[in-house]
Sequence to fold (403 residues):
Amino acid sequence: RIHRVRDDPRFNSDVDCKLTGSTQSILCVPMVAKDKIIGTIQVINKPDDEGFCKSDEEALQAFANQAAIAIERFRLHETLHAQAQRIQGIFEALTDGIIVVDTAGNPIMYNRAVEDMFFPGGLQNYALTTYLSNVIRRETPIGSSEVVLFKPHNIILSNRYVTLSDSNGQPCEVVVSIRNITEQHGIDRRFSQFYAIMLHNLNKLMKKVSSEKNVKKLRKLLKKQRFLIRNLLFLSELKSGPLRIEKSTFDLISTYLGVKAKMESQIAKRGIVFNDSQLCQIQSPKVGAERRRMVQVFFTLFDRAIKTLSRGESFSISGHILGEKISFEGKFLGKSVQNFITPQCLDWNIQVDRILSGEDRSLNLDLAFLRHIVLAHKGATEISTKPPNEVIVRFDVPILLES
Fold:
């Protein structure tokens, strides 16, 4: 507190002119909350030109502290409100249903996903009540189960629940997480049918192999058996999700040349015209990839050429470095090649559906698996056709740039 402030050397008359121009006395106290100064309160010019006394300071300090507490409470309220809004947003955005119920099975709160599952079209029904009674009557505090809801829902729900206890250790609420697994069940059922078909075909083939005496026919049957088993292995990896790779640094063109050395005799034996002169001339880049998988990619291109092209037809492989990637093109020229290599070959789901519908009798997932490998290396794959007899398989993979 300062009386006769104009006599104080710290007084700034320029500032005073912009404010009141007549400041005589000042009382200033800090606003303290939790031992932290969050601001100040200042009063000027006590009436009758009397200076501020100690009791004035104590009264103002008490007021300032109360004001500081009120401000901190408001800030805390705003923070809690913002957090509550954020949590509510996350709660509503979840695709899984979340519902909190009391021990009697009465819903306390639930999100939009629960509404979509249990009240299709916004129509009220008793499905939720029945569902919850099945969940909360279980004896264990944590558990999971599956429930089928019939018309009008026609869905299969998987739930996991946790029982919460109060401060006395007594159950007070049950939190239930609910997921619609109808589509996954459909996929699993579809693949069960498909595997049954494939295993039946494999069993028939093995019976033929065991009874065949002709060496030439036996060799052909064994080749078909290996092809069928390989596609089943491809499918199991494709269905299990993204491919895990073990990267190393190596020369990609040298890896290609190693595959070519093993396959070109079969290409020549088939009478296929082969050309890779352009690819062999580009500067060989280093890649961070799994060598074994890249060998599979190049092998697939050669193997497709051998299986789909006839004598006198042509197959070429070229490559280009485009920025941070190297792009490869496998070009197939043959009168029937567009019947065997199509853009749909990259989608294993389409091929499985065609087997189940009876549109196709054989499955070849080599190009779908090629795409699977390239995707795991953060690359892209496409197949384009040009009538009447040209097909190009393109893929690219990142290269390591020299620093």
In short: The mean pLDDT is 85. The domain at 2-89 is CATH 3.30.450.40 (Beta-Lactamase). Residues 54-93 form the longest helix (40 residues).
